[in-house]
Amino acid sequence: APFVEFQDVWLAYNEELQAQGRYAVETIDLRLRRGEFAAIVGPSGCGKSTFMKLATGLRRATRGRVLVDGQVLDGPLKISGMAFQAPSLLPWRTTLDNVLLPLEIVEPYRSEFRRRRAEYEARAIELLAAVGLRGQERNYPWQLSGGMQQRASICRALIHEPKLLLLDEPFGALDAFTREELWCILRDLWQQRRFNVILVTHDLRESVFLADTVYVMSASPGRIVLRSEIELPRP
Ligand code: ADP
Ligand code: ADP
Q: Residues 6 or more apart from 232 whose CB is under 8 A from it?
């Protein structure tokens, strides 16, 4: 069975737009395999963020339905981790405490948090080391470069081992060097653990480098117009 399934999904942002037939996305029909790394690429305004809101249950489809792990989504998805274009670390928390955040608020970790704090910290430190942030645990976000903050954000998205990682242009604001370094780190993590990833990007090169399936969206109407499995040999 697919892990994520869109069944003829349409979304109009309000009734007026719907009455005018102006849907932000329409006829979205796709099935993502368990463990698939999917990239959604397309120009600005084509509906990528809208797609992401549907996949996370932050927006309900106007028509059609979205299923994750066999369940129809009817509210915000709890099994996911997310990272966005801006790092959005909490400024009053250290890097370590930022990364620990999902373990403090997402069940079943939350109820165990106090008792297992040392174990959770060790896990966070290990993950930070994997993205080159060893020694930064006690520093605050303002002491980190933008690229380092973004790495910490990705650790925060992964710390509770979500079944689904949602990435909305998380590399967009980084310099080319940091970006390619993070691509490699993410690809290694995915190859080890095979969680599902949905990456939204307007960078075709990024999508081909990272994903095993690329979905191309067109604007007006916001549709998926191409699905392509990437079988290039990769370094
Ligand atoms: P992308 O992420 O690819 O840039 P979006 O999903 O943000 O595209 O937008 C798709 C379309 O939906 C655009 O035409 C945009 O103007 C419209 N849109 C996005 N958010 C809203 C909203 N909250 N209300 C009305 N229209 C919206
Ligand atoms: P969020 O609550 O996640 O910020 P919004 O739906 O408010 O989501 O906005 C998502 C994107 O859609 C933003 O890029 C925003 O600029 C754009 N947007 C928001 N409202 C409108 C709108 N009425 N028309 C067109 N685009 C919009």
A: 208
How far, in Å, from the CA of 154 to the mean position of ligand 2?
23
How far apart CA 20 and CA 77 sit, in angstroms, is: 30
Q: What is the pLDDT of residues 96-134, one digit of tens each?
A: 999 999 999 988 899 999 999 999 999 999 999 988 899
**Ligand 1 centroid distance, CA of 9 (Å):** 15
Query: For the complex shown, is ipTM > 0.90?
Result: no
The verdict on the CB of residue 13 being under 6 Å from ligand 1 is yes
Considering only CA atoms, which of 85, 68, 89 is closest in space to residue 168?
85
Report how far residue 61's alpha carbon sits from residue 54's, in angstroms, rounded to the nearest whole number: 7
For the question of whether the overall pTM of this predicted structure is more than 0.90, the answer is: no
Q: Which residues pair with 168 in a beta bridge?
A: 200
Q: Which residues contact 46 (CB under 8 A, 6 or more apart)?
A: 217, 218, 219, 220, 222
Average pLDDT over residues 2-8: 96
**Using the 8-state DSSP alphabet, how is residue 33 labeled?**
P
Query: Are 58 and 99 a contacting pair, CB within 8 Å?
Result: no
Q: What is the pLDDT of residues 157-206, one digit of tens each?
A: 989 988 899 999 888 878 888 888 888 888 988 998 899 999 999 899 99
Residue type, 105: I
Q: Is the CB of 49 under 6 A from ligand 1?
A: yes
